[in-house]
Design brief:
10 strands, phosphoric diester hydrolase activity, about 270 residues, DUF4996, globular, TIM Barrel, 8-stranded parallel barrel, alpha/beta
Length: about 270
């Protein structure tokens, strides 16, 4: 947690960039998109993990095969040779000379002080955690998952204690994850559909902060029907102004804000620091 703490000592909150920054010919969840995110003010890169049928780990969000690769098949049903043969489509839908990145290449590229959130990896933790051990990047890596016993048991038993933040959907999730004594719990990601959610309330947030745990809040807007934190999101922050979105997340004592618009959020953070 030292890297996180060092970064928080100099900033009111940290900026996590969802899938990297993609635009034009630069595609999400690729090394170029992570370079773009780091140049846009990111403190942490969020990336999605899949495992091929023969055990190779890649950075890709399953479900996006048609849009990004022109494929109707689930990428998780492919072996590494099949995945390596695929080419990305850019943001105009044109096939380009860019392939799905192997996770090992991404990790080696960003070895240093850039924080990395390895999302959607929880289904593979039986082999994924031992895979991570070889990189000796424990201080850089952050794991998340829904609160589920099968995931927590693996994490609890693994000898290398990677930083972990459970995705909290309801209050009972908090009690369940706190029952584990051998997990490196550094904070919690709160999902609050609306302002009536217990996870939106200052009392709930303050109880977590009093335990010296961090709060992760999402500003990303996946689509019209999904609210990750009571509609105080990137969309309203850009269309109406930061005071209608990001400002509320700061007032809710967010330590980490995930965004699709890091350059705008970075500019807002710099104004807060003056």
């Amino acid at each position: 947690m030292n890297i996180i703490k060092d970064k928080l000592d100099n900033n009111p909150f940290l900026i996590t960039v969802h899938k990297g920054s993609s635009m034009g010919n630069i595609v999400e969840n690729t090394i170029p998109s992570f370079y773009a995110a780091s140049q846009s003010g990111a403190d942490m890169l969020e990336m999605d993990i899949i495992r091929s049928t023969d055990g190779e780990f890649y950075v890709f969000h399953d479900g996006d095969e048609k849009r990004l690769l022109g494929q109707d098949r689930d990428i998780k049903t492919m072996d590494s040779a099949e995945i390596d043969s695929l080419h990305y489509r850019n943001n105009w839908g044109i096939s380009i000379n860019l392939k799905v990145e192997k996770l090992k290449d991404v990790l080696n590229t960003f070895r240093g002080d850039m924080l990395i959130n390895l999302d959607r990896s929880w289904d593979y933790w039986d082999t994924f955690l031992p895979f991570l051990d070889q990189f000796n990047m424990k201080e850089q890596l952050l794991l998340k998952s829904p609160v589920q016993k099968s995931y927590l048991d693996i994490l609890d038993a693994h000898p290398v204690k990677y930083s972990y933040m459970p995705i909290i959907f309801e209050l009972s999730d908090i009690k369940e994850v706190e029952a584990y004594e051998n997990i490196n719990l550094i904070g919690m990601e709160f999902i609050a559909e609306n302002q009536d959610s217990p996870l939106f309330q200052d009392e709930t947030i303050n109880k977590i902060k009093e335990k010296d745990l961090l709060i992760w809040i999402n500003a990303i807007r996946l689509h019209d029907n999904t609210n990750l934190f009571a509609e105080f999101d990137d969309d309203v922050s850009i269309i109406k102004g930061p005071e209608f979105g990001w400002k509320i997340l700061v007032e809710k004592k967010a330590d980490i804000i995930q965004t699709d618009w890091p350059n705008h959020l970075y500019t807002y953070r710099e104004k807060l620091k003056k």
